Protein 1
Amino acid sequence: MQLTLPFRMRIYLIILFCVLVVGMIGLMVIEQFSPLDAFYFLIVTIATVGYGDIHPVTPLGKILVLGIIITGVGCFVGVAANSIEFMFDERERRTRIEKLNMIIGIFFSEMGTAILKKICAYDPAADKIQAVLVVSSTWTDAEFSRARTVLLNQTYSIDCPPALLQDLHAFLMHHKGFLLALLENPQMIEHDSFTPLLQALFHLTEELMARETLTGLPRADYAHLSGDTTRVYRLLVLEWLTYMQYLKQNYPYLFSLAMRRNPFDRNASVIVS
């Protein structure tokens, strides 16, 4: 089993700390070093500097130092190597997240915002959601967190009439190629919340395509399609809020346009006044 980088780092740090504690106590007892001299000797030894101004003189002290060199130097090198690896991994992770959010931004520009507007018009609890999601440039992380809590506890129930289903069918058919391209993107698999949204949206597309007509269906079938639509709507609302927080923190100019196109703000206008 391959150990993860944070786990390996913790192991190295724990061992290095134990070496320092045991080494200091041993040198103070065996070699009669002062605490400062013992710590100084350990650092220059483990760091492989080795000035030679302080050194053990007793056989037992020399044996102790040999143990310190074998364990301490190895752990020090391990900590240094893992620290460098962590920095490279963190940089790669940030680059990957940046690319993912660019794709999410394209999704909302092409599909997400329009779908939210279509479904929100048939949401009986739209007023409550709209009151929460009139985001402004003054919002803090705490306000985004409070809004997310409200949305997570919100009961979503969309009773889809044939008109909404036909509208969604036409829209999703027109953007099916775009949706398939997103699903084929290997980076999407790494996103915990956006991937389920794409899967739910593609499932709704398949459900709508599988029916020859969307009028005159049995009540149970409308309930089934309403459940699929509600699932998409809930995931979309939460993902939209997450993306708005990301834009506010990183791209104020994109956030400004997104707020002027806010699907939950009845007064939103793309025209700057």
Protein 2
Amino acid sequence: MSEHDHDHKHEHEGTSPREPLHNNFARNRKALLIAIGITGVIMVLEFVGGYLSNSLALMSDAGHMLTDIMSLFLSLFALKLATRTPSSTRTYGFYRMEILAALINGTTLILLSVYIIYEAYTRFITPQMVESKTMLLVAAIGLVANGIAAWAMMRSSKESLNLRGAYLHILGDALSSVGVIVGGIIIYFFQWYLVDPIISVAISVVILRGAFTLVKDSANILLDAVPEHVDLDEVQSSLKTIAGVKGLHHVHLWTLASGIHSLSAHVLVDDIQMSDTGHIIQDINRLLDEKYRISHTTIQLECENCSEGFYCNMDKVCVAVSQPHSHEHSH
């Protein structure tokens, strides 16, 4: 081993990943409670109305709402857990519960849509009469109520993948109500009962599209994939333009929770004293936050005189990474 005039420093800076969750908790909780209340009332109304009118579209929408209520409660539970204080065994707390809830919501939407399509298939084979007036009245009430719930959820859905899943459920209900109204009008004037299962299938296809996207986004986050809005090669190129940065390796970029992105990297710098490296860390964090919305970073600085597989210890000596070492870790 040879001595070098440099220090090894590990900086961990950025805002707490839970801060956005705490700041928006009250508003998001209120939006979820409004949606739960409205959806529960309309679900009961559509079950009764669907039974009386013999409408598959209306009954399917009511079943969809039952799943929605379960999903909304799951989202509310996940939202609460996400704000819990970290512990020694869960250093990030439960913030990823929202991603798990979104994955479950998306999966239930897919399963429900497949079931509705199956029920529609049976009605294609054996068409059934539908009482259009009841169907129209209940669907119209449902549309107004779902519109109010969707409006209450709109802002929150842009801030959280969990809330986006809940919003998609409500939006799917509103679209279902529109479809049921159209079907009711056609049945009332033309007695064409096949329109009921046709509309059910159309609604299911729309719901499936959003559900697949939700499942894909949730899975990508749980698998620590690079955020879709960020090009990792571009990030590395930008970091290399910072004064004092000579190279990068072991770069990892992932999403912690909705809107909270994290990056860790080993940064190669000149052979300088540790006390002179503060501005490099600040410049890196400023660039990542302002240009790429990456606020949670872990940067390890390394001297270019140490070869791959070695780190610089506090005595300014290159030591193999497998050997015990100590380093500063500040937040």
Protein 3
Amino acid sequence: MTDCRDLVRTTVEDGVAVLTLDNPPLNLVTLELTRRLDAALERLASAPAARVLVVTGAGTRAFCAGSDVSEFPTVQDDVVRKKLAAENAAYSRLDDFPKPTIAALNGLAYGGGLELAVCCDILIAGADVRLALPEVKLGVLPGSGGTVRVPRRVGEGRAKELMFTGDPIDAATALAWGLVNRVVAAGQALAAALELARTLAERPNRALQLMKQAVDLALDTTEDDAVRRTLALSEAVFRTEDCREGVRAFLTKEPPRWRHT
């Protein structure tokens, strides 16, 4: 299954969906790219063939270098209605994506590009990647979830340092801070992300989805409420065909044959 639309391209093969931002040379976020990103994510979320999603940027210069500033004069008089409402809806669709998501970061991940990347569950960066929230240098703030999602990954102090200075950090620093999960050789982020995605696509699909929900609950509610609500998720996963298959395979010492149901 292939969608060759401009700005956002998607493919699905062997359970792995790849969504590529394709707005050369820096894959800037425009109003139209936002619309197409939202539509692509909605479509992939309900596609049974897509069990894991990899998000990346075309080319080698940038995963995404943020918003197209040339559009600012047309939106700044009513920025929420004209830009940020749709952008936040699309980014939240990725953050709430029901299946595991991996960002493969190449080149620059700046501003809205970094805000998009941290909507993914796992971030893999090439060694040459630079990451920044430079909005302060335009006299604005990260308006598409960065003020919420980045602190959850790196803590208050480091998030404020990124935002207050607007200066980029390198991949090694991002790894030390916990902003990314892995750093690989320059140019290898997508290959590494696909390798991990194929591994996850072989795992029982429903178990991964419910596990993701359980972890997200820990960030969105109180500890006691999260623990209580995960009991319903355990109840659901124990009723799946894949749970029965996993137990059967374990007891018979055979490889499981997952049906992803």
Protein 4
Amino acid sequence: MPHTFLIRDPRRVVQGLAKHWPDCTWDEVGFEWLHRLFHGLAERDGAPPPVMFSEDLLDDPAGTARAYCAAVGIPFIAEALVWEAGDRREVSWYGEGTGPWHDNLRESTGIQRPTTGYAPLEDTPRRLEFYERSVPLFEDLLQYRFAPQPG
């Protein structure tokens, strides 16, 4: 199975870190390391690994999953994109909180766009710097993303 990269809009990444982990560092933002790892694997393997863009997954879960399965050579199973609401023991390692993340997970029945709101990056110059440094790395990775496949 090849390595796969799931990338998110750096604005959402940095805003989420600012809200939940206000003292994070540039290294912990992760885009520089992700970028290095991606290109190291592409050089080693002679081809870039599959890249999934989270917005594609949110906009078209089936098409994006179908494209991912094709990229890594596994069968697409449409039924895997829906599930019954309820507790998720598979994420218990994350902590048994009653916070919004776990509540949303328990209530979910499929892939859906998050409703989390964040403060503007401009409110914190350090976060704005992290975002601005992340954008070119993200854009480089984004050019390798696979497009959702129609059904």
